[in-house]
Amino acid sequence: MEEELIGIKNAALSFVLEAEDLKSLEETKLQFLGKSGKLTLALKEVTKLPAEKRPAFGVLANEVKQTIEEAIEDKIKSLSAVKKTTLLEKIDVTNPGVKPPLGHLHLVTQAIEEIQSIFEKIGFVRVRYPEVEWDWYAFEALNFPPNHPARDDWETFFVDEKPHPKYGPVLLTPQTSSGQIREMTTNKPPIKMLNIAKCYRRQSDISHVPMFHQFEGLAVNTDLSISNLKGVLDYFVKAYFGKERQSRIRPYHFEFTEPSFEVDVSCGACNGKGCKLCKEGWLEMGGAGMVHPNVLKNCEIDPSVYNGFAFGWGVERVLMMKDGIKLDDIRTIYSDRMEFLEQF
Ligand code: DAH
Fold first, then answer.
1. Cα 131 to middle of ligand 1, angstroms
2. Closest ligand 1 atom, CA of 174?
3. Ligand 1 mean position to 328 CA, how many Å?
4. 7, 95, 126, 312 — which has fewest CB within 10 A?
5. Ligand 1 proximity of 257 Cβ (cutoff 6 Å)
6. How far does the centroid of ligand 1 lie from the alpha carbon of residue 197, in Å?
């Protein structure tokens, strides 16, 4: 009986050794360990043995079973390792790879970079100032009297913080003009700065978003005039929108400039003649003006020696005007819709 068991073991092991794939291993397993497998049947013979021989037979039978099982397991492992290497060997490294999808900068970031590089060419230096600001920098020093209704136009977000004894309540910058005060209180003229930053206002509808971007230019020197301002506006308009485009200034009112203007750009669709898009040939772009003497004084710059000009426009606005992007809802710019974003 014992020899029979040893014979079964040897036979099984030689099958395992010769097996070349998982299928033949499966068959070997069934042939020896299955319900009517050779070892299973041999074990049933135990009843034919005298009682005192049964335990030793049982121990041997178990050892044989275990040995066969382990041999099968090991062979499965080595077969799958071989399979992996042959797979590897078959990879043709000269095949062109699969290109991962490449992203790109957001269209607003692209516009900011372009605007920055246009102004850098004529000596404006990009600056960055706080987005969370005190009332003094955002309004008061810009010549807005306290509680003046003009402040309502800026629909400010206030931050739930203790007001500063000197600078007043804490807020989110509603306009990049606060950068003018930061710049003039930290630097002496001559100044030529470009502040491009996020602005926040309590507004959200198809043509407004609560967070948007502005770019603000400020030049302060001893002898600046409206012609200098107009020259800079013309330069920007031609560099950003195209050579054939023109700028125009119209009288307006801002607290922090005197005189103040609104700046228009000739319409690209009709070349200033007037069309459905622009009506009269011009598209409104943003504000500008000569820095108000009170603003200079608030920054301890003597208005009898220095003067300056400033301008501030919306990044999203000029971007949409340039590319002729007509959006039914401006909020699309800040959505995560890939169909929209992938176009830029
Ligand atoms: N800060 C103004 C706004 O948010 C825009 C502006 C107007 C900026 C006139 C200026 C300026 O620098 O001179 O609407």
1. 16
2. 4
3. 26
4. 95
5. yes
6. 13
pTM of the model: 0.72
Residue 84 binned pLDDT confidence (cut-offs 50, 70, 90) = low
Longest C-alpha distance within the chain, in Å?
125
Name the residue of 256, 263, 285, 316 to mutate for ligand 1: max ligand atoms within 8 A of Cβ: 256
Ligand 1, closest atom to CA 289? 13
pLDDT at res. 85: 60
Query: 């909020």: which residue's tokens?
Result: 331
Express each pLDDT in 224-257 by its tens digit.
999 999 999 999 999 999 999 999 999 999 999 9
Question: Average pLDDT in the 170-186 region?
Answer: 97
Pairing of strands 191-200, 125-127: parallel
Residue nearest to atom 7 of ligand 1 (CA): 287
DSSP class per residue in 151-204: GGGG-PPBPSSPPBTTTB-EEE-SSTTHHHHHHHHHSPSSEEEEEEEEEE-S--
For atom 8 of ligand 1, the residue with the nearest CA is 312
Q: What is the pLDDT of residues 249-280, one digit of tens each?
A: 999 999 999 999 999 999 888 888 888 878 88
Mark out the alpha helices in the chain (DSSP H runs).
2-18, 22-33, 38-44, 54-89, 107-120, 135-138, 178-186, 226-241, 293-298, 315-323, 338-341
Counting Cα atoms < 13 Å in the Cβ hemisphere of 326 gives 3
